[in-house]
Amino acid sequence: MDTDTEADRLRATLDDIDREIAVAVSGGIDSLTLATLAHAHAPERVIMFHAVSPAVPGDATARVERIASEQGWRLDVIDAGEFDDADYRANPVNRCFFCKTNLYGSIARHTTAQIVSGANVNDLGEYRPGLDAARNNDVRHPYLEAQVDKAGVRRLARAAGLGDLAELPAAPCLSSRVETGIPIRADILKAIHAVERRLAEDFPRGTIRCRVRRTGVVIELDPETLKAVTGSREAAVRAQVADLFAGEAATADLVFAVYRNGSAFLHGIA
Catalytic positions (predicted)? Predict the structure, then answer.
């Protein structure tokens, strides 16, 4: 499918919605592109909602607010309230179900518009309990309806003029770094984000995940970055991680490993 066809199908999906549209914008490339295209196609009936919480990196919020200002979006920044939900904080395997349930419920309290998400075709091949929450809240997924996958989203982003953002790496919420069953705490998420930001300063093109597991902290990196960090710089990185996690999690047995998507859902992996 070429970009023009993908864009046409996406616009047709938006046209099929016969009321105002509320786009849930996390700050990732999927939702940013959807918001950009929806606003360009029907600005008078599209409003964006971005939720802030300890699980959402501040740079994601800043990115949303910057693009909203540049493009003239109607943007409503809200607190989805997931940290008030004991089921979410308990961090079960289906934590995302409770996160998205709170998000969509909060958006629905602010508007009667049709809520849409940035889920794309590739998401169907992964464990995504958030899609169950979407189904329960009658959320629509324009990319799924238009049969657009992740590569297609990036093509649409480039065509829409989003520049370098088209290559924005996947960045799930910070809670995804905490192993299933370990309670979610705001201070732990703050430390996780601080570690990832610090490493990203030295390796801006690297894939970096700071995981908190029962065995301690694990830093997952793409192979090239892993090789660089575990060489002559390992001692410095260990000291930085220990400092940033001081009092929050054990770092004495810090482990470096190759990045694996979704590995925090698994128990006992070092």
Answer: 173
